[in-house]
Request: fold
Amino acid sequence: MDWLCGPELPFWVTNETFHTNRPDLPECFQLSVLSWLPCIFLWGAFPVYLFYLKMNKKGYIMMSLLNRIKTVLGLFLWIVCWTDLFYTFHELRQGHSQQPIYFITPLVLGMTMLLATFLIQYERLRGVQSSGVLFIFWFLSVVCAIVPFRSKILMASSQSNVPDKLRFTTFYFYFGLVVCELILCCFNEKPPLFSDAVTDPNPCPETTAGFLSSVTFWWFTSLAMKGYKMPLEAKDLWSLNQRDSSKVMVPQLLKEWEKEQAKAKRYVRGGPPDESSPEEIEVLLSSQKAALHQPSFLRALIKAFGPYFLIGSAFKLLQDVITFVNPQLLRMLISFTKQQDVPDWWGYALAFLMFFTALLQTLILHHHFQYCFITGMHVRTAIIGAIYRKALVITNAAKRSSTVGEIVNLMSVDAQRFMDLTTFLNMLWSAPLQIMLALYFLWQNLGPSVLAGVAVMVLLLPFNAFIAMKTRAYQVEQMQYKDQRIKLMNEILNGIKVLKLYAWENSFKDKVLAIRQNELNVLRKTAYLGALSTMAWTSAPFLVALTTFAVYVTVDEKNILDAEKAFVSLSLFNILRFPLNMLPQVITGLVQASVSLKRIQSFLSHDELDPNSVDRKNTGTEFSVSIVNGRFTWAKEDPPVLHNINVMVPQGSLLAVVGHVGCGKSSLISALLGDMEKLEGEVSVQGLVAFVPQQAWIQNATLRDNILFGKSYDEQKYRRVLDACALTPDLEVLPGGDMTEIGEKGINLSGGQRQRVSLARALYSDADVYLLDDPLSAVDAHVSKHIFDNLIGPEGLLKGKTRILVTHGISFLPQVDNIVVMVDGRVSEMGSYVDLLKQNGAFAEFLRNYALEDLVEEDEATEDLMDEDELFPDDVLSNHTDMVDNEPVINEAKKSFLRQISILSSEGDGSRCRSVRRHGCSQRKHGEPQEKNKPQEMEKLIQAETAETGRVKTKVYVEYAKAVGLLLSVIIILLYGCQSAAAIGANIWLSQWTNDEAMNRTAENVHMRVGVYAALGIAQGVLVMISSFTLAMGNIGAARKLHFNLLANKLHTPQSFFDTTPIGRIINRFSKDIYVIDEALPSTVLMFLGTFFLSLSTMIVIISSTPFFAIVIVPLTAIYIFVQRFYVATSRQLKRLESVSRSPIYSHFSETVTGASVIRAYSRHAAFVLMSDIKVDENQKSYYPGIVSNRWLGVRIEFIGNCIVLFAALFAVIGKKSLNPGLVGLSVSYALQVTMSLNWMVRMTSDLESNIVAVERVKEYSETKTEAPWEVEDKKPPSEWPMNGNVEFHNYSVRYREGLDLVLKNLTLNVKGGEKIGIVGRTGAGKSSMTLCLFRLLEAAGGEITIDDVKIAEIGLHDLRSKLTIIPQEPVLFSGTLRMNLDPFDKYSDEDVWKALEHSHLHKFVSNQAAKLELECSEGGENLSVGQRQLVCLARALLRKTRILILDEATAAIDLETDDLIQSTIRTQFEDCTVFTIAHRLNTIMDYTRVLVLDKGQIAEFDTPTNLISQRGIFYGMAKDAGLVQ
Reply:
């Protein structure tokens, strides 16, 4: 450096700097190093930063006052620096030659200031609001200028005059300007023009936050304040950053995944070169290759999200290195306290250095976490999006392999696992690095003895790994049980009504509890392992220290353990502890994620439906729908369902498809939609398709949205559609008209209404081809006639469109253009009605059976219809949950086919004039202005899920403690106290031991010292194990109790609860909340207790060694509690919002999966994907502030921890005279580890609060109002009751729920045993309600029902329900064996079951199955046709054979033959029973003893059918409509 400054300005003088009480740096050092540091930084950062700015343009910022001032100051600085330069030249001309340094430094500084000024402007143009690079530069400049600032003043005060006036002045100018620049740099520029920040109503302040604010996460404070003042709501949350939205993330992942798939395909295609080889070999080879080379989802993830993640990794690397600075500073501090004659400022400098390194480490660490968590969030968003998109297009075979529940699990659990893993993924390389560095420093400290400690660590690794592996295995097992349990719960809740009607709750409760027991057993094993591993990791650092120290002192007499060695080693061991704990956890996480990865990968690799299996382009032909030589199957490995199908449908014609149950009618429609696997043949469909499925799919949205289905609203067209579908009268009854919200699966519409809404959706969509899968089966006869005439038939709104109608109703067949008759998956005949009759084949046979009676005269029918139109407004469909009116049609089926042809001609005229008159009617009806359109106050059916707000009540903690057991809770806390005491004891003993050296008493005490140290440490380990053990046991006990109560309560809950609560919400309690109580809560409690006692013991140790510290503790604790309250209030609410916004993702998803075929048919694919994305973004909107709140908290709490380190060190320096080195080491090394535990403690407090919410939510649903008891001991009816089956209604009234109108009003009637009663009435007259009353699913609002002199209101529900039998309108099957579905309690012998199957005509079907009675029914009985399911319900009834049978419209989806079978079975098998039939086909009840006609909830007529007809009342009218009387 001599040539720079010359000989008279030395570069470094030790005596002036270190060994003096007034240290100062030499002028040469100041001019060179201190001046150049900031410049080197800026020029180094410039190229990288420039490139970054070029790549990211955020818009353009207008010139502002702030910007102008910064620029002007920058120019001034340049002038000031170059003034110095020119002054040096001036001196040169005067003859004073200066050293080179006086030329170089001002030149460099001036250039740098120009660069800084350029950057200020360039950043403005690129839209940077606050610059980190410049901030660091100005900060460095100020820091470096402080030293000359001080030394210039010292120099001036020691001499009388200032030697170099100009430079003295320019320097202070320079200093002032740099400080101003630094201050200005802290302020933000305005946001750029046209940026999101300007347009967004509630932008995230992060995008506009300044550098300092970003570094300390200060921008989050506003939300924390808001959350503290009042509970946050969804509207307070910031919008999601563009970079985190599904719109950006999902395509990013899908792009990479598609590349992967393409690569894999290329690989498989490059099959064996010998093309002529036999095909089998080729197939074999390619399948082997395919197994080898699957597309790797992992690679796709890495490519999509790796680069962003790497930034976080860089931060981590930096943090790892800085971690090791503090132990070195601790060593210097301890040696400082030993030396007597050293300047005090050393100590203070060390204390502050410790503080600053810790601070830097905190900031860097949290930025690393921020990057990792955001990556995690991106991964979750992308995975959910990918799964959703996939679920819309997978084949049916793939759907079979994963149920809805499992796919939802992929979305919730597996995506979550990835998210959790990304946060710790960096530990994979960071842990080994930290371990190596720690070992290197330890070796320096203690030499080879360290190897003893390392050996202990290495021995512990396999132990930990073993535990991790076992835990892993258990976890998989537990996941399986959990899946099973949730699947079963899902079915129970979906079929809860049936369970109640059959009194089967107990059987299913036992099934759930059996699975739960297995789940808990696995949990218990996991808990044992957990306790072991907790012990291992608590004791590990201690064992390592013990062996190392013991070996160190015994190896060599000269080795003395002094404070420096002991405590520096201890702090290094503490650093070691983290990576050693994390490694096994990360590995476990990795293994879990790899399982999830496989699951997701296999799901995403499922076959997709071939979009080209149906040719939609083919415009050349006049056939708008054609199938040529079609062979179709549901899954490639199954036998084909449809063979050799040839169907041509001319443009604009109406084709009817008829055939028996299970002959493949619906499959034909699916084949046209492209939902089946096409094995051979051609399918073409021209134009847009509308599809009405057999079971209507209704979304959870308003009625209007269900009809519009994404089309724009057109008033006139909409009204026409409603009229044609006969929905107008219904709207008048629904509480909100067409804005009524429809519950999940259309729960608050009757079956007929659902079907008509589905039809309306098809009609509104204005497609070219209409595929109607039996849409008329679910509606009343006159309604179906109305719909056929107005909508489907030759004169309907759809005339001119191509229509394919699957139907069971014979009456419409004469009016269709062509008929296809299906038999066993083949087309047996095809042609017009007349042709088929002439052929005299299967179809004619089919008709003959049903057309026995005389024909109704055509004109009479027409007049009837006119009358009926007057009645139509009354026929108002109710909005009750269970009036499903499935009414196939028989009215005109009784035509003798001999007079068919003449009738056909008259039919043509008749129908035409009829429709004209009909239109006149409808115009008359809608002439007056519609009052419907006024917005009405809507009554929401489904109440919004309440997110609890405010602090978690202490009561909840007490409830949980009670569930654990109060005594046990106290014992656990005591154990934790003892364990901390042991740990403190061991460390205090160590500090005593290190002081031996000063008194020269080392040799004789060694064995005693080592022995006691060991004893204390081992005691701690054992206590840890016992305490974790007891804790785990308590937690599992609590989990069992809470789940049991929840389940018991849900099975006792009245039906009305299930009608108003979405199933997803109840399932959420059983899955998410129970999972939290099982797994998350125990570990949180464990961590909380651990960290709490650790923090406590730290405080005790520091105060006992430096009592002064107590003064500081008060303000620090105050700040701590303050921050913690802010954080917990906000974070708890964010967690709640997050969990409330999570359910819609899953319920929307399961809705989509069930309606996938409808969504595809209408090609609404993209719209649904968008809806799902919006829901995920809503969820991430509350998750993102949650992440940031953790960072915000971490920075603040660790700052407090760093203050503790600072004060512990400062007081040690101040009390240097009275303290021995051992105590200094003890208190500072404790302080160094306190940050971590303080941070975890707040986090755990908050986690505890968020997780305990699960207990609160489960309790809430375990305490809902229950129905009457299942069994009332003192009122038990005799076991053979009811003997006769007399049923008496006495002044009976009932309503659905509190606050609704009465559905039945003051019924009084008396039914003798063995009577057959038919119940008829218009829809909504209260027919279904009568049956529900008998079962007490609805409790009386007045009056009573007695059966054989027993008042049913007084006996237990099971006693009542098990004595009645119902064949419900919607056949519900549970997954399990067929036998379980018939007899869940195993009450009957196999031969009884077979007999029941025989009578219910299922014998042939079941005995043909390989599994016979053990035939597995899939979820909801999907693998049986609807007709077969109905027959299974009949078999249940036959098996129970009680005295009273209730038949609830059980004839909906069944063709006429099956219907006759059922009717005859009931007539023979139940002839001595009392039968109530809710009938639509009047001919079924014409021979009943009496008929009850209900009207608006009251008895209108009650007598024998013959009498009623002669009375010519309502019943006569209905019979006339049906063509049963002349």
Summary: The first strand starts at residue 623 and ends at 633. Residues 505-555 form the longest helix (51 residues). The chain is about 65% helix and 10% strand.
